[in-house]
Amino acid sequence: MAKISKKRKEALAKIDKEKVYSLSEAAALVKELTYTKFDASVDLDVRLGVDPRKANQMVRGVVTLPHGTGKQTRVLVLCTPDKIEEAKEAGADYYGLDEYVEKIKGGWTDIDVVITMPSVMPKVGALGKVLGPRGLMPNPKTGTVTMEIGKAVKEVKAGKIDFKVDKLGIVHASVARVSFDTAKIVDNARELIQTIIKLKPAAAKGTYINSIYISSTMSPGVKVDPKSI
Description:
Layout: H1 6-13, H2 23-33, E1 41-48, E2 60-64, E3 75-78, H3 84-90, E4 94-96, H4 98-105, E5 113-116, H5 121-125, H6 128-131, H7 149-158, E6 160-164, E7 170-177, H8 182-198, E8 209-216, E9 222-224
């Protein structure tokens, strides 16, 4: 059995296991529980009452967090030469086509988001085996396959994230950094949760939001009362 560190024991001692916290209480508590030396991410885990194996119960969407993620998002734009200047002006970190297609085929994935345009999807589609498992494959549904390259880059840089329920029915997403004040963490978390609620599939029956936990990198999770959202 793995040994629990002193700091983790202290963090666990601060959580009342019998209590379900309001979102504000939980966000404030997570800041207290964090003992990493770096600016840890604040993550949400939302368990849904859906069966992801059924196409009509898949939950996937995008949300722009009001205060951003606090993370420096590295954006690659795969585009034709006429769109390069637009991508550059919007703040993309990398832009081009053939040279980056070859780099990715060679295993390069030092990026967080890939944005492209419909006309070059045949070339991008060939990268599915590399980009797909890493969640980097562009998709029209998340706004990463578009002719509005500049707009897409700016939205991602401003805090737009995409999320998808996993095979266990859980949505995992990073919504802030521990250095954010509690109010900003709450705003971002609420925006994500409310977006998930709006995406409730018509085929989903019974309780939709089964549980919500908030945590930071390496911290214990704190259970949030869905009614407090």
